[in-house]
Amino acid sequence: METEEFDVVVIGTGFGAAPPALRLAQAGARVLMLEKGPRLRPTGDFRQTQDPRYLRRFIKSVSANTVGLTYAEALGGGSAFYEMVSLRAPSKAFAQREAGGRRLWPERLDRGAMDPWYDLADRTLGVEQIAVDDVPKTGQVFSLLMRNLGFSCDRARYAVRHCVGAGSCVTGCPVGAKRWLMTNYLPAAEEAGARIETDLEAVAVGVLRHPRRYQVLARGREGGWRHFNARTVILAGGTVGTARLLLRSRPQLPRLSPRVGKHIALNGGVKAAGILADGLPDGDMFSGRSHPGVISYQFMESHGISVFPAKPLPLQLISSARIRLEGDDRQPVYWGEPHVELMRLYRRRMMILVALGLTPPAASVELDGDGKAGGLDAHRRRAARLRHRGQRAARLDPHAQRLPADPRRFRRR
Amino acid sequence: MITRKDFLLGAAAALLAGCTPVRILVRDYPAGFDRSPVAERILRRFVTTVIPGADGPHLARAFTDSDYPFAPYAPFFAHDLATRALRLGATSFEALEPRGRVAVVQAGLDGDATTRKLYRAAIFLAQVSFYAGIYDDAAGCDLIEFQGARELVPRAQQRHAQPERFFGRALTGDGNYA
Question: CA-to-CA distance for A332 and A346, rounded, in angstroms?
């Protein structure tokens, strides 16, 4: 099996991977990017569709009893399928501490230190605040509701140019308005000399001693194993992917911290839906861009959350909620006539609110010793214990397989 | 005295009658329910029970679509609906009045854990398939005014007129909270 040498191997091609790959390649380093998913063709792969089979090709999810996580598996990571919202983490996020008092971020890393880098990313991605004229109806009505309640509401920031409001942002923009990583960072990185390999999954990382190098073991989608050596490995395979890779690599990385895969803070999304009162204008779920364009920071200081409206298309709505009207004791509750009555209101009179906040870092990624999902009872006990402490937790990795971590696969020179 | 053979046969019969996972495993339904017009009619009727007013050519297609994990269970599910309808004194599930069909579905949801899971999955699949129009991106779903994923609403209709009147106090100058 051939081993290739690089200065840097970057695992992943999403938002965490593309900027360092570009800057290191521009600085003259030999850079390799490894992507588990396929290379996307915007003209053929981006579609306006509600077909779950299409979505499942690129968008994956991991779910457990108390949390769920969605991610994309394709060149550019989630950048092809996100809603183009590009906001900076507030100062409070960098100051977060876990239960024991330890800071989640390094001491010197705060918003002030990050802002110059945010500026650079904004320029490269083409991030701008949405104009008043571009906020779709749902965002307008949400803003009006907040104003009527005496609360603030801000226009959000997006990486988009010449948006026509096709509304299929989460299945890839069919008109090419979305600024995703294949319109900026990744082609620039390739132009600077970085190599991008798709359909190739990094399954383990090990250390070689003479000379000191990391070795990445990767498996092709169609089979076949490859080795890559580098002085530096950047792990940017996403929250679950990176933790899973490190946990699989523990036999080759004996000094790996026992905290890897633990204390993961998700964004703690909570959704609620309501029916607009008579007299309020329609909030149209099916027109304009996927994200409604506005966000309220009213409760950031007091509760550590931001609140914004959502515009799910029918597939996303049905998949994420069993809607029913509070106080309606008719049976059945989430299907039949009562549900149809609500669905008739969905497009124009329903307002869906999402709260994202600074939640305790309580989730964890674990691999079972036998490589199978299991320990459901233990998981329930653990989740119940954490719920008792006001936290939420779950295994995020029910389908994880422990890979054959054979040290012989890591060639020593 | 009961023989060992009789005991085993009795136990197997009891298991078969009472254990839904085993009944699914041994395909405890008439052979005609495999992709038959009867099953198709029952499944379509199930969708209109779950979604009163639903109509269209693809109402029951998702149940037998091999891309979804429900397909192997569809014949058993259709037969289960028919059997529960018979218990209510009807000649078939399709012949029941809406209230009776709702009672049949509710009885399935109140059944054992496996039956409950099956009925919940069927309701979910019916709702996703119909409301999202997953088999025809251009058709959408008239019941909820969804004109299909390909509908491009004219730019002027994407927002209400005089947009400034909707906005009040903002906390930031550029959309980023400090």
Answer: 19
In this complex, do B166 and A164 lie within 8 Å of one another by their Cβ atoms? Answer: no
Give the other-Cβ count within 10 Å of B32's Cβ: 12
Q: Tell whether A300 lies on the interface with B, counting CB pairs under 8 A.
A: yes
For the record, the structure tokens of A160 come out as: 């988009």
Residues of B in contact with A167 (CB under 8 A): 149, 152-153
What confidence score (pLDDT) does residue A263 get? Answer: 77
Cis-peptide, bond into residue B21, ω within 30° of zero? no
Distance CA B10, CA B17 (A): 10
Mutate to test the interface with A, among B51, B67, B127 (most CBs of A within 10 A): B127
Q: Which of A85, A282, A340 to mutate to test the interface with B (most CBs of B within 10 A)?
A: A340
Q: What pTM, to 2 d.p., does this model score?
A: 0.85
Q: Give the tens place of pLDDT for each residue, A111-138.
A: 999 999 999 999 999 999 999 999 999 9
Please, which residues bridge with residue B146 across strands? B141
Question: By CA distance, what is B103's nearest residue in A?
Answer: A332
CA distances from A224 to A199, A247, A351, B111 (A): 11, 22, 50, 48
B140 neighbors B151 (Cβ within 8 angstroms): yes
- Cβ B137–A48 below 8 Å, yes or no? yes
Record: contact B144-A347, CB cut-off 8 A: yes
Question: What backbone torsions phi and psi does residue A132 show, to the nearest 5 degrees?
Answer: -55, -40
Cross-chain Cβ contact A136/B105 below 8 Å: no
Contact check, Cβ <8 Å, B51/A335: yes
Mean pLDDT by 10 residues, chain B (178 residues): 69 64 72 80 97 96 94 93 93 95 96 94 97 92 92 91 96 97
Kindly provide the ipTM of the predicted complex, given to two decimals. 0.87
For residue B46, the chain A residue with the least C-alpha distance is A336
Handedness of CA A42, A43, A44, A50 (dihedral sign): positive
Yes or no, beta carbons of A53 and B124 under 8 Å apart? no
Other C-beta atoms lying within 10 Å of the C-beta of residue A109: 12
Residue B160 CB neighbours (<10 A): 18
Provide, as residue numbers in chain B, all residues whose Cβ is less than 8 Å from the Cβ of A93. none
